[in-house]
């Protein structure tokens, strides 16, 4: 354990000062340079197993592969099940370190978001990992995996589902432990490993797993390996996450598709109805207009505000890189906006466009939405604000799959809203002593000042660790920020994987 | 030729009076009752050939099948090509009738709208015609095609692409001629047959075909067999059609899909941008708010207004049948609203919904639109009003497939608008003598008063016949109104096919 500095001093120390990378980092680097082929062989094997969270058969195959990875490292794996049968188990393992006074659990998840292979670039298959000379949209070209003895370029990228989110996390943690073993360096804390298999479905049963295996999962800290490093390329440490809840909003019109010539001007158009509904929810600046949407927000603490103010601005660089002209938020910074709850349209579908388009008036229109939550927001209360808003626009709102003739006869406008259970946001206070230890450990591996954020914009069910295990969580992400996480063409830059190894070696020597 | 009544007297005569079906109609009915199996065998063969308008190989197979149908009836088919090579040819045939003073060309089209087989009901395949006891949404059950000697129920429906639009038209025309032959009844006019193969693509080359084969196609009248009978179930005669032009409107945001947690609240959401754009185009009553959209409309003539006033109201019955609560149009009738230009959203797509939905901010959003045009509207001028509107909302509008980095850097909002060429509306004056003859012929086959409409809501490129051949057109549709034309689960009610046979026999004895 390192001596503690007051938080503000530490934050200042992280700003704009050149840092030295410590010996362990350099040693880890040398080890990695000698083992790149072995490392990538094992990673490719992991990536090749389909892991869409709803694909229960392959999810279990993925879990079994990870259990084997633990065994290879001399750790006896356990599969931690939930009370509910059939839930993908968490894969668990532990390493007791003689003399260690603290225990750290390392978390990553091995399931992935759904894939629509048609939307992936030509030549890319979600579960056939492939190597490219750089990012596709920067002109990256495919390249075969090099043979033994041939070098890797650290700017190459591996494409495939979960290359970054979050098999990279699983792999970085287990490879860091392996590096320590091979280098004969002892961890300074007891290590536990916990790999979840249901995160992308909203971690519906994680609470049950934590509750059922409470004794086994006792620790002083959870370190969460998920998400991207800062857009500047600097490493970052995150003290919280937004919560999230998914909704589907569907608007119904005619029971059957209608010829747009014979009925256009008279039959209601569900795509337009849904467009009007969505438009009513946000203003031109992206502010949510739904009544009560911002009511429950817990304000930032003073130290959170200070940390926020120190995050390097990336908005203009990012806007150019992403190629859009105008951000939402009326001029507020990205870092600031991520501290607010948000309402996102993830997708919109009504009949067909392109080659399949026909001259009809569709029967329904559907929007997939996700609401990001901040501290203070309750998922169901937030969903209710949206339902109330839709009702206030003159809609009858149901949760039923099909609409009855009676409902159709009775209500001029009908919407179906289905919300998943979702989960709350979580924030660990920046002032905890162990928090500062983690920040210093990560900084010891980096030349540039690392970024400390009160919260990730993304979501993880970290509130559960707090609520059930009363244990703080800190997130140390590793992926490149342009990894296309959750979407087609997901990828990982090799250098990010190499950096991750050094980071996680340091985190096992807190 | 029949003696002419003044138009108003004829229209009055058609209102609310019981009519007798004439001998020819009864004779045709008896003939049909004896030949139902033969008729449906031939129709099934026609339906089984895929005819999506863009599927050039199968379109030609469909044309060849129709050419064979002509041959079987003792008519030597001609394939009429366009100046542009590779265009699906029109299939043509003619029957000279000794002593006949007039010539009527019968038109139908043999191509069909695109199909998305996934959207069709379980058990239905677009090009495997299948029989159901009634409409699917009324609880229709599949039933095998009856064996020789077993009866058909006239309420049964055949499901498949183009069962109604418009292979039914091709088939009704050729079967009516066949019936006359078999019954040894001579047509009273020279007959020409013209079956188009590119209607559902907007009849892009029909003008070329008409122009190239002008001499062959001389006539006194074109009778168009396409579209549905009136929603009351009564037969109808239509004196015009709306024009149509298809557009695609695509809005661009970030170059790559973004994680909705890490970027939600800041990155612009293209689905919301497009929703806002579409919402700005129409008010709550469905009135188009685009500047100039209604400017060019030619007012209805007095006799058109009279005909319009006599159309039986169906709005309330239809609204209930279609199961929606509130029509567009602020209380105006369907018949009245179809005399206005319209802007329809045919489809909307942005990323994914349902099982494929992921927590992202999409990169783009696309809407398929069609603009229905009335007399006076020019397709390109109407498209321009939409483009100007989008520009007025702050968009840079391009037609290019891909957006350059320079464009992305320069313009805060970017939309791509691609419009097809489209075509104008057409209306034949109700007062023409031959028009009245047609109305009387159709009425002679029906017990109930037929409906006379100044214009169909749907579209056909009838302005070309006027412009190139200087020949009037009258449309006599045959399909059931609930045929799902252009959409999934397209179908034809058998009784409509039987009625069509009687109608078209009468139209060959004007």
UniProtKB/TrEMBL annotation, chains A, B:
Residues annotated as domain Peptidase M20 dimerisation: 247-393
Gene Ontology biological process terms, A to Z: proteolysis
This protein's record includes keyword Signal: yes
Source taxon at top rank: Bacteria
Pfam families in UniProt: M20_dimer, Peptidase_M20
Keywords, comma-separated and alphabetical: Hydrolase, Metal-binding, Protease, Signal
Stretch forming the signal peptide: 1-20
GO molecular function ontology, one term from the record: peptidase activity
PANTHER family noted in UniProt: BETA-ALA-HIS DIPEPTIDASE, DI- AND TRIPEPTIDASE DUG2-RELATED
Protein name per its UniProtKB record: M20/M25/M40 family metallo-hydrolase
Native source species: Spirosoma rhododendri
């Amino acid at each position: 354990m390192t001596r503690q500095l007051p938080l503000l001093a530490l934050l200042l120390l992280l700003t704009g000062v050149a840092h030295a990378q410590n010996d362990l980092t350099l040693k880890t680097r040398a080890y990695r340079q000698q083992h790149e082929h072995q490392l990538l062989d094992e990673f490719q094997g992991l990536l090749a197993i389909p892991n869409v969270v709803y694909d229960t058969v392959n999810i279990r195959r993925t879990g079994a592969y990870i259990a084997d990875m633990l065994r290879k490292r001399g750790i006896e794996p356990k599969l931690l099940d939930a009370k509910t049968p059939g839930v993908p188990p968490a894969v668990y393992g532990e390493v007791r370190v003689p003399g260690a006074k603290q225990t750290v659990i390392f978390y990553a998840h091995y399931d992935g978001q759904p894939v629509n292979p048609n939307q992936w670039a030509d030549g890319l298959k979600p579960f056939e990992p492939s190597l490219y000379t750089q990012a596709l949209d920067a002109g990256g070209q495919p390249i075969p995996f090099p043979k033994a003895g041939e070098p890797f370029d650290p700017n190459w990228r591996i494409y495939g589902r979960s290359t970054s989110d979050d098999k990279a996390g699983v792999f970085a943690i287990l490879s860091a432990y392996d590096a320590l073993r091979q280098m004969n360096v002892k961890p300074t804390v007891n290590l536990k490993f916990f790999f979840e298999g249901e995160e992308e479905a909203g971690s519906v049963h994680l609470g049950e797993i934590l509750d059922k295996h409470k004794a086994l999962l006792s620790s002083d800290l959870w370190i969460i390996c998920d998400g991207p490093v800062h857009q500047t390329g600097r490493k970052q440490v995150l003290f919280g996450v937004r919560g999230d809840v998914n909704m589907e909003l569907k608007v119904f019109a005619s029971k059957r598709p209608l010829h747009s010539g014979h009925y256009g001007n008279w039959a209601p158009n569900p795509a337009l109805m849904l467009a009007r509904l969505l438009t009513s929810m946000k203003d031109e600046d992206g502010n949510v207009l739904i009544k009560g949407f911002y009511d429950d927000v817990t304000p930032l603490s003073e130290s959170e505000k200070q940390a926020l103010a120190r995050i390097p601005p990336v908005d203009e660089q990012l806007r150019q890189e992403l190629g859009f002209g105008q951000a939402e938020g009326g001029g507020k910074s990205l870092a600031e906006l991520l501290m607010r709850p948000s309402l996102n349209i993830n997708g919109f579908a009504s009949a067909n466009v392109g080659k399949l388009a026909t001259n009809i008036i569709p029967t329904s229109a559907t929007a997939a939405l996700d609401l990001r939550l901040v501290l203070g927001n309750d998922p169901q209360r937030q969903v209710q604000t949206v339902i109330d808003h839709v009702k206030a626009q003159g809609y009858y709102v149901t949760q039923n799959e099909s609409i009855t003739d009676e409902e159709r006869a009775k209500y001029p406008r009908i919407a179906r809203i289905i919300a998943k259970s979702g989960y709350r946001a979580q924030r660990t206070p920046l002032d905890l002593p162990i928090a500062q230890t983690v920040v210093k450990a990560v900084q010891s591996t980096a030349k540039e000042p690392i970024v400390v954020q009160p919260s990730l914009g993304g979501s993880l069910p970290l509130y559960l660790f707090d609520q059930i295990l009363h244990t703080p969580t800190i997130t140390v992400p590793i992926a490149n920020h342009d990894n296309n996480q959750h979407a087609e063409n997901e990828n990982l830059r090799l250098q990010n994987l190499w950096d991750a190894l050094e980071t996680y070696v340091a985190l096992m020597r807190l």
